[in-house]
Specification:
It is built from 11 helices and 16 strands. The chain has 369 residues and is an alpha+beta fold. A 5-stranded antiparallel sheet has the order 14-13-12-15-16. A 4-stranded mixed sheet has the order 3-2-1-7, sandwiched between helices. A 4-stranded antiparallel sheet has the order 8-11-9-10. Strand 15 and strand 16 form a beta hairpin. The two termini are 40 Å apart.
């Protein structure tokens, strides 16, 4: 019998997407084959402290509150890089908890999807699922993402970005002339539609800007693209697979767009059609743009590309998610299921891709001697 693979699942996080991360981790932990994997749960609380199995499991219980997490140093963790083992230790006793073969950072948003934890795992030489530092960082920052796509000739909505340093330069009248109305206002570094506003008046605009700056020090303001909202799932390192497309439609008017509430809180907030009703030509074009986006943004492992298909047949990329949700209603696993790849098979392949990349990086020269 082959040795079990020891998998660490990181979840929670110091992010507005904390609760979504917990739901994703719950589904992943339940789906991993216990005959093939030993699971180590590592929950990160909203203060950024890391906790081990016993406390983390409380979060994954049905209807659990994140406040149930313990705060004692006995369960707080640290990574210790080693020559042959990837040790994790408790802070208080420095008790070694063994090595991890791979980590699934089931984290969404800042400090989890933006390259921060990916850098930590690379320093500890631990294989991890998903994009590395660069792909995670540029995929998270919508401003940088859109600039790279624009430079590569991949269509996306016209936009302006502002930081807290030049916030005083934001002018509704000039942006209305440049981008038209309605406009979308978004935190540059967040997902799950948190902090996004669709605005059509100066009063709505002011409120939307204030709300976006509550979540990030940089925001983007972009034009509305009218078209069918489509999503494709990507999988792979050097060789990339792309799923069928799914379509988000019939968004309830009370939400205005596919908002956080429409996605996660309102069962009737929107309809999802998988696969989307597209011609072969339309599907091919959306898939090709999705793969091109994946490559331009230096992604590895997995991602979901969201785009708009206009009446004239043009594809505009809305955004990329380098660690898309893995809840029971998330588009990423559902898209692969519709493409013939089940949830468990998908996780097996993601783990294999992470370990293969780590091995390939380990074969690179690090010395000229």
């Amino acid at each position: 019998m082959s040795k079990k693979i020891k998998v660490g699942i990181l979840f929670g996080g110091k992010s507005a997407e904390h609760e979504i991360s917990i739901k994703s981790a719950m589904n992943v932990a339940q789906a991993l084959d216990p005959e093939a994997y030993d699971i180590v749960l590592m929950g990160i609380d909203k203060e950024g402290k890391w906790h081990l199995d016993a406390d983390s499991k409380k979060w994954l219980a049905p209807n659990a509150s994140t406040e149930a997490i313990g705060s004692g140093a006995d369960t707080q963790l640290q990574f210790v890089p080693g020559e042959s083992n990837h040790q994790i230790q408790t802070i208080s006793s420095q008790r070694e908890l063994g090595s991890l073969d791979v980590v699934i950072p089931m984290l969404h948003g800042p400090y989890g999807e933006d390259g921060a934890v990916q850098g930590l795992l690379k320093l500890a030489n631990i294989p991890f699922v998903g994009a590395s530092v660069l792909g995670s960082a540029v995929g998270m920052d919508k401003d940088v993402m859109k600039r790279l796509l624009r430079d590569a000739g991949i269509k996306n909505a016209r936009f302006r970005s502002f930081t807290t340093a030049n916030r005083h330069q934001i002018d509704y009248a000039s942006l209305e002339r440049e981008l038209g109305t309605p406009m979308f206002i978004k935190p540059a570094n967040l997902g799950s539609s948190v902090g996004i506003s669709k605005v059509a008046t100066e009063a709505e605009f002011a409120a939307g800007v204030a709300d976006a700056f509550r979540f990030d020090r940089k925001i983007i303001i972009e034009e509305q693209i009218v078209g069918r909202e489509l999503e494709c799932a990507l999988l792979g390192n050097d060789e990339v697979e792309v799923s069928v497309a799914g379509e988000v439609g019939n968004v309830d008017e009370k939400h205005g767009f596919y908002s956080y509430s429409a996605k996660y809180l309102d069962e009737k907030g929107a309809s999802i059609q998988i696969p989307a009703d597209l011609t072969e030509e339309e599907l091919k074009k959306v898939q090709e743009v999705s793969v091109a986006t994946y490559r331009v943004l230096c992604c590895e492992g997995l991602a979901r590309v969201d785009s708009f298909l206009t009446e004239s047949g043009e594809v505009y990329v809305n955004e990329i998610n380098t660690l898309p949700g893995f809840t029971d209603i998330s588009m990423y696993p559902k898209l692969w299921e519709a493409s013939g790849k089940g949830y468990k098979e998908l996780l097996d392949q993601l783990i294999r891709l992470a370990m293969e990349r780590n091995q390939a990086e380990g074969n690179l020269l690090t010395s000229l001697e």
